[in-house]
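new request in #modeling-help
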Amino acid sequence: MAVTLKDIAAEAGVSLMTVSNVVNGKQARVSAATRDRIMRIVEDRGYVPSASARSLAAKSSRLVGLLVPAEDEASLTISPHTVEVIGMLERELRRLDYHLMLRGIAHRAEITEALRSWHLDGAVLLGFLDAEIDRLNVRTVGDVALVAMDCYSENPLALGVRSDDFGGAALATEHLAALGHRRIAFAGPGFSATGVVRRRFEGYRHVLGEHGIAYDPELVSAVEITRGDGVAYGRRLARERPDVTAVVTTADLLAIGTVEGLRAEGRSVPGDVSVIGYDDADIAAYVTPKLTTVAQDLPGKAAEAVRLMMGRLAGDARPAAATTLPVRLVERETAAPPRS
Amino acid sequence: MAVTLKDIAAEAGVSLMTVSNVVNGKQARVSAATRDRIMRIVEDRGYVPSASARSLAAKSSRLVGLLVPAEDEASLTISPHTVEVIGMLERELRRLDYHLMLRGIAHRAEITEALRSWHLDGAVLLGFLDAEIDRLNVRTVGDVALVAMDCYSENPLALGVRSDDFGGAALATEHLAALGHRRIAFAGPGFSATGVVRRRFEGYRHVLGEHGIAYDPELVSAVEITRGDGVAYGRRLARERPDVTAVVTTADLLAIGTVEGLRAEGRSVPGDVSVIGYDDADIAAYVTPKLTTVAQDLPGKAAEAVRLMMGRLAGDARPAAATTLPVRLVERETAAPPRS
DNA sequence: CTGAAAGCGCTTACAG
DNA sequence: CTGAAAGCGCTTACAG
């Protein structure tokens, strides 16, 4: 059997409580001498505290969930963007001596279940629709410290962390407009449902206005952010709207597909059409031509998520305002002045 | 407060035990009538069992760890290959009502700590060196069901799941040899330490022999599997060994970098030099030219890892033999007959 | 500075 | 088919 507090206490000839205090670093409550003696025994016996016992007895589990939408039978689709966030969250939490539980959510009820059954201290919700976050209430969530990433829900139960989506798309559109483009298309998924895409769309439209370019709804397309959908979109665009000379997209993968689709129809990038991606995923630099794209501050986003969560766990009662992280344009090879 | 078994029992007018039996589906032990009544109350009150209480009282936690090597202060580096595995493991485990804990391991001792503190039922070790798996002993591991992925350690404490590494490299080399190549280089990381790379190297060398091609140690290079290292390698190869007409690599990213480096030095791919990747990651199909590569059965690997683990948890005492999954060549655009 | 008691929410035998 | 008792390994007040 694994060694327990009791074993250590017996060997040291002290009470359970004293060992507990030593193990938890409550220095003030134990003399240096007994502390050293106990520590030595702990080391020798290779004592590891039981997290389940601890989380049952204490109010804290030191467990944080990373909840990601999932299909029932499908494996988690983890975008390049999500991967970065996972890796960074894990590091931040590990540093603070927390553990990370990764969970796909196929049904609404599973959120509550995950939070409750493991007594999670906090959770990061990644990639949920605003509406789903809106629906969270105290009954389902309890007092878990929730951080919703890339979400524009006003629900005070979830602290928000996101990038400057309006600004990112504005940056991309501005770059194209400054290059001389006038017919600029916009492609992204789920307009109505996801606030992120909506803000980016608004950034695009805003800059159009600033440059006196009339907004043309026909130039805006709902396209899923996969390479395949991008290819289809690129082909369609080339055939149906040959007048378009530039495209703002909401994801690198989508942009990469768009470039391919365009080329498949005989249009060159950036000769005939400029394309700008979003995220600056690793692949953006691998493809040919290398993708001009909008980079998010992913490490900042992960760090901020953890910072907000720890703040709430430490007792910051007032719901902090949503944090918005800066964004920047990475100029590479897919944006150039229009021909003529 | 959250509702507990006791609350449900009180409301139903039965004992705690009966509710526990109902919740855990021990049908035989409760009459249909009380079962239905209890279930209704459970639903109404939104009862969620406490996993920590359960794992403390029972021998099982229904928690599985995914342990990945990490640097102390660095965020987890999750390769495209690892991402797939994570997503698939999560799905398989979720289906079986297990939860996944993701943990970076910076020091040896953290493995024990992770396993013990959360009473993990099992763990998948992903990306560790064979030597690290070798060192695992019963004292550090207890009776946790361990699966080591992509590892050739003989340690019976960890069930092995891997692809046919020898066969994969053999397939790639065979393809090149059949195309007419005679000077075929091999590039991969950490030869001595990682069994995976060693087997692939052996596959390469074996096929060379079969084709009567003399083995030239100078054609074998230790290169980290990043795109940057690949670029450097490609340039070096172009300058120092212009006679080489083909390269077998152990990773897509490395292959992609190699192609770039080769081209930067004025060599064309596959015109002057053929390059074959490994893994068939998504990016392999995105780059230009599209990468010819060796595909692993990733879903199979994840499913097999879970299957083995569940077998052990169900009591398969005898250590199952390591499982080896098949591999296949995906022909795309980076391999062609040599010039001349 | 140290300890005895109660309790966190379950499950595991064991009775009836 | 149902239940009372003991215990899993800790922490939290509260005493001394």
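bot summary: Chain A is about 45% helix and 20% strand.
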